[in-house]
Amino acid sequence: MANREDPDSPDAVVLTHTLEKLRARDGLVLQRLQTIRRSDVASLLGLPSVQNLAGSQDIDPYLAALQVVAQCVRDLLDGTHQIVADAVLGLGVLDDAYLRHGLDQKVIQALRADSLGRRRATLLSHWRALHLAIGVPSGDPPSDRTLRGTLEFDVLRQLARQLLQPANQPLALPAPTSEETGRPPATVGRVIIVGGAVMDVIFRTKVIPQHETSMLADYCLLTPGGKGVSQAVAAARLGLRVSLVAALGDDQFGQEIVGYLRAENVDTSLLKVVRGARTPITGVFELRLGDSIAAVWRNDKEINLGVRDVDLLSGQIAGCDAVLLTFEIPRETFQRAVDLAHRDDHSRPIVIVTPGQPYADGGISRQALSRIDYLVAHAWELEQYTPAGHDRFDPDRVGEHLLERGVGTVCLLGYGGGLIYSQTAPRIDRLPTVSSPFKESSTTRDAFCAALAAKLIDDGTFSESVAEWATAAMACVAEDHVHSTTMPDRDRIERKLRDTRSRNH
Question: For the chain, which terminal residue's Cβ has fewer other Cβ atoms within 10 angstroms, N or C?
């Protein structure tokens, strides 16, 4: 714990006093921040990390302040301080850890009650269980008098100190400059990707090994992957301002993924990094012409992007130009994210969805379907949306059924092209075929989604030229999959289109 004799800077003293005020009543929640006198929270709103985050993400400074404090508590405080700060401020940043450990939901809700007294009582009565849940020693619980008179002050004082240290401002990390990346700076289009971040282990082979056999691989590659990561990198290479919302561990794989994203000019400030957790892994067998099969270990007992996580990002999601979502996240989180994107139907982002790894126990709600502008799918992923009374999968019937359920446009991808079912562009019924000798790899659809977002932001409406451009991006990835860099930039897509047009004429 902090020593009361250690001198504090005037800024730390003021910030500690601010945090003490904010712990009262319902704690440090967005509504409280937005209604309290601005002068009472000026020391928090004036933090460089808060100002940087609000400016870079174009969000309300109150929301930025909440995110900065929550991330600092999650990542920087020691075990007991973390538990106490989370409870007395009513943040709920440890909810996932408590749920994984099997703590009763009523206890978790009580730790976010709108009464400081109830939060304190719950903290003390479940002291050992809370420590056990995050894997730290507990010792005997303090008395109520010690908690109120000493421990809370020490915890909030330490939190204030860490918030003021430049090295401990996790949400204010600068993105690489264009000089560092060698790519032009992002100038148009703000895109949020909500999806998965995993480490891929890729084996390239002549054929897929049969049951109870083994074979030699031509090549093995360990690389950051997941649809969220791939779409984020694809969008960044097209010059968009991109942030990834995903959950991953703080292990070596997690650190490598974060480093990779930053090198690709993807903003990582919205990532949820789970302390002590192992980052998910995907094993991929990829054939020479690009087909692949995969097995995914999600580690969902430790890694989980919850509804509360996306609620904290409501301003960014509602205020960007396009939101790209995948089924790699829990269904309730997905459905909450599409609701947030529609917070203001008069001015909202384009919603593009990839239903990869369909939910095993059914699809998403009809309301969630109605909030999807573009559903980019493979045929097998849509079998569960076959209308009642139809035993055989018919892409035309399923496409029309999804339009009836409110989806704006369905892009059913195939090799080099695909089918289109659209409410907004009914005259376009087929994706242009952009020739390539290679089949789809695991990332071709990710490039399609990113290119679709970029071109829709450029042009404003869906058209044949938008479809052709996105399909060309997919063909580029299929051709380049043998190289370490597969996601195309705009010049690469334009060259592919010129080559295809010249061959057709």
Answer: C
Q: What is residue 236's three-state secondary structure? A: helix
* Residues facing residue 78 across a β-bridge: none
Long-range Cβ contact pairs of 398-405 (< 8 A, separation 24 or more): 402/369, 402/375, 405/366, 405/369, 405/370
Measured distance CA(70)–CA(170) in Å, rounded? 10
How far apart (Å, rounded) are the C-alpha atoms in residues 290 and 439?
5
Give the tens place of pLDDT for each residue, 265-299. 899 888 888 888 899 999 888 776 556 788 888 89
Cβ atoms of residues 444 and 231 within 8 Å: no
DSSP H helices in 185-226: none
pTM of the model: 0.69
Q: What domains sit in the chain, N to C, each tagged with a CATH number?
A: 10-172 (no CATH), 189-210+217-504 (3.40.1190.20)
The tokens 């714990």 sit on which residue? 1
CA distances 214 to 66, 205, 207, 307, 461, Å, are: 52, 11, 11, 42, 50
Q: pLDDT tens, 253-264? A: 998 999 899 888
Which candidate, 449, 343, 353, places its Cα nearest to that of 405?
353
Counting other chains too, the contacts that 259-263 makes at CB distance below 8 Å and 24 or more residues apart are 260/224, 260/229, 260/233, 261/224, 261/229, 261/232, 261/233, 262/173, 262/175, 262/176, 263/176, 263/181
What number of residues does the chain have?
505
- Can you state the angle between helices 152-164 and 61-75, rounded to 10 degrees? 110
- Paired tokens of 53: 């985050």
Residue among 389, 408, 479, 490 nearest 438 (CA): 479
Instruction: Please tell me what DSSP assigns to residue 267.
Output: B
**Burial class (CB within 10 angstroms; exposed 0-12, middle 13-18, buried 19+) of 287:** middle
